[in-house]
Amino acid sequence: MSTDTTIAATPPTSASAASADAAPKRRSYWSLWAKVPREFAFLILTMPIAITGLVVLATTFFTGLGLIALIFGIFIVVASLFIARGFGTLELVRLRWAGRREITRPIWNRDNREQGFWRTMFVPFIDGHYWLYLLHGMVINPIVSIVSWSLTVAWTSVALGGTTGWIWQRYIPDGRGDQDFWLYDVVVDWLFPGNTLSVDPRIGEAAFEFVVGLIFLATLPFVFRGLTLLHDVIARGVLGSWRSEALEREVAQLDASRGAAVQAEDASLRRLERDIHDGPQQRLVRLQMDLAAIERKLERDPDAARELLGEAREQARETLEELRALSRGFAPPILQDRGLAVALQSVAARSPIPVTVEIELPADATLPASIERNAYFVAAELLTNAVKHAEASGIRLTVSTRDTGATGHWIDLWVTDNGRGGAALTAGHGLAGLEERVQGLRGMLVVDSPVGGPTTIGAHIPFVPLAAGETAPLS
């Protein structure tokens, strides 16, 4: 049995990567140009799509509204609401493609039930999101798109025309002849009153247009970014989900996690009850019968009584071993007294297969007692499964914590063996029960076990670290 334990103050590599991803990135001027093609494509297509949406939605909605007294107008109104939902979803997809942060979409089927025809027909009337999508498609988006499209075309035309006009304007007759009005002359006289500057008008006009074109070209990324951001802000307010829906989603996830935890605990209790009934309980019944037989033969046949006494001693020893094996599914005293690292070393030391233990926990790790208990149980169960089913010659147990910033603190527990592989999350089996337990803690279980091995199983559990000096009872 080989045990290699490391206590480190630095988080694992995955944590460092996660922290690096969470850190804000500094944007340079040239990085804005990287998204200019996508933002231009988004902006230049905005008005055609918005006008198409306006025509389709206005036609279907007002036609259905006018025919609503004939009953089938209701179906046309519902169709217009679904069409508005489609155009709104297209806007969200286009914004994401343009490089904007993804907008959380509304929950269209909140109760996760089969809609059915009549429910599908009448839900849009009471769901405010459909009407907001209709308002966006018929009023907001057409107005905003005309402004953004006009600015996009104008800014791009001036930027490209001004910077390249000196190349192609000479080949285009302007018909101005010897006219006295030149735009560059007006600007120069306004900036420098009383100047005596004498320049060829055509050269001066070309130079003025070139400078203006450079200014528009230099500000092009900011204009495109601002116009795209305008559409993004409007979409987040009108097409995105509401805060109440985020709360509903959080409550649903908590209910699902609590249900998974209850199911996992119930399955563990049933298994424990079955193991006690099939093992120690049967042995204790046998021990009671042997003691009764010894009591009857103690006076009449001491030799037979002595033989039965030896069998009873063996029964008591085997019962004790089974009870010790069952107790490993609970938090041992060493976990409460010495902490998670020492408890994991202890469970690894009892493995009949050599286990390499790598524990990378900060020196001031303050894990809640419930997290330590569940991490110990998951590690013990994974090691037991590897011993029973993997046919491995070596196992590696790795435990570490990380702070991702945005998603909080996590404990990562990995068990890797060099066995035959083929492990899967099959319903009714041990890994499925472990997955339910981990999901009950709002974590996740990852299984990578190709046929032929190796098998790598990771349990990732979020936790809230205890404050300095704070302790929690081991419940």
Kindly, what is the distance between the CA atoms of the first and last residues, rounded to a whole number of angstroms? Answer: 32 Å
* Residue-averaged pLDDT: 76
The helix fraction, in percent, is: 55-70%
Largest sheet: 5 strands, mixed
Following the backbone from N to C, one meets helices and strands in this order, namely HHHHHHHHHHHHHEHEEHEE
Principal-axis shape equals elongated
The helix-and-strand class reads: alpha+beta
Strand-residue proportion: 5-15%
Oligomeric status of the shown chains?
single chain
Question: How does this structure look, described?
Answer:
With 475 residues, this protein is α+β, with helices and mostly antiparallel strands. 64% of the residues lie in helices and 8% in strands. It has helices spanning 13-22, 29-34, 36-66, 72-97, 117-126, 128-168, 183-191, 201-238, 243-278, 280-300, 302-327, 333-338, 340-349, 369-389, 430-440; strands at 355-360, 395-403, 409-417, 444-448, 455-463. Strands 1-2-3-5-4 form a 5-stranded mixed beta sheet, with helices on both faces. The two termini are 32 Å apart. Mean pLDDT is 76; it is low at 1-25 and 471-475. One of its GO terms (cellular component) is membrane. Residues 42-239 form the Putative sensor domain.
Q: What is the element layout, followed by pairings?
A:
Layout: H1 13-22, H2 29-34, H3 36-66, H4 72-97, H5 117-126, H6 128-168, H7 183-191, H8 201-238, H9 243-278, H10 280-300, H11 302-327, H12 333-338, H13 340-349, E1 355-360, H14 369-389, E2 395-403, E3 409-417, H15 430-440, E4 444-448, E5 455-463
Parallel strand pairs: 1-2
Antiparallel strand pairs: 2-3, 3-5, 4-5
Helix pairs in contact: 3-4, 3-6, 3-8, 4-5, 4-6, 4-8, 6-8, 9-15, 10-11, 13-14, 14-15
